[in-house]
Specification:
- The chain is α+β, with helices and mostly antiparallel strands.
- It has a single domain (50-227), classed as Chloramphenicol Acetyltransferase (2-Layer Sandwich), CATH 3.30.559.10.
- Helices cover 25% and strands 26% of the residues.
- The strands form two sheets. Strands 2, 5, 6, 7, 8, 9 and 10 form a seven-stranded mixed β-sheet that branches. It has a three-stranded antiparallel β-sheet with strand order 1-4-3, with no helix packed on it.
- It starts with 28 loop residues before the first strand and ends with a helix.
- InterPro entries: CAT-like_dom_sf, Cmp_AcTrfase.
- The active site is at residue 207.
- Pfam families: CAT.
Length: 228
């Protein structure tokens, strides 16, 4: 249940705060200003491509005991965290670096009879109840369809998350293209010890988009989200 998705088709540039109604939620591309502090680092790592992965165990005790459906709740917590950190929403349009004002999650649905999976995506809402309603509707409508993209290709403003409940890993690495700037997340099997439930969560990052500090900030904010 691991996947990498690179948006297909043409690359569009949208001026700051111009809404595009191609998808149920508009994509808004926000260019970085000319004095963006990471502009030199970005240019360096675009010339010299570099990606890295970080795996950390995250405490999901509160989430596990909350009674909320685990997979959509974890997906929502990750996406909610990413939507608080512009560096993890970075993209490039027409050679201009910037970020999506908001991203939605793309996730996998496993088909046990064939050992394959499909990729779905659901519009994001900061309210979990609203998101869960949309998530359930998508899974109900498309979850049994064996096509790789049963809902259609995901829009460009998605963040990819896959859950591999068969694996409890210490490290996980994906090799993806230099032009894909958004992070990719992979969660593994949870385990319980002394009343604490944890699982491994891997972040694959493009160094042009974010540094170790940004990934550390992601884990810090996610920890607070998971305690909510």
């Amino acid at each position: 249940m691991f996947f990498y998705h690179r948006p297909r088709g043409r690359i569009f540039y949208y001026p700051h705060h111009q809404k595009v109604n191609r998808y149920p939620q508009p994509m808004i591309f926000c260019p970085f200003p000319a004095d963006w502090p990471r502009r030199e680092a970005y240019a360096h790592y675009r010339r010299n491509p570099c990606s890295y992965s970080v795996t950390q165990r995250v405490d999901v005790t509160a989430l596990r005991r909350s009674g909320r459906p685990f997979a959509p709740a974890l997906i929502h917590a990750v996406c909610r965290t990413v939507n608080r950190l512009p560096a993890l929403r970075m993209t490039e349009q027409g050679g201009v670096p910037g970020y999506w004002d908001e991203v939605c999650p793309a996730y996998t649905v496993f088909h046990p009879s064939t050992g394959t999976f499909s990729v779905l995506w659901t519009d994001y809402s900061p309210d979990f109840a609203d998101f869960l309603t949309q998530y359930r509707a998508d899974v109900e409508r498309y979850g049994d369809d064996p096509a790789f993209f049963p809902k259609g290709p995901a829009p460009a403003h998605v963040v990819n998350l896959s859950i591999a409940p068969w694996l409890d890993f210490a490290a996980f690495n994906l090799d993806y293209g230099r032009d894909y700037l958004l992070p990719v997340f992979t969660a593994g099997r949870f385990s319980e010890e002394a009343g604490q439930v944890t699982l491994p969560l891997a972040v694959q990052a493009n160094h042009a988009a974010c540094d170790g500090w940004h990934v550390a900030e992601f884990f810090r904010v996610l920890g607070k989200e998971l305690e909510r």
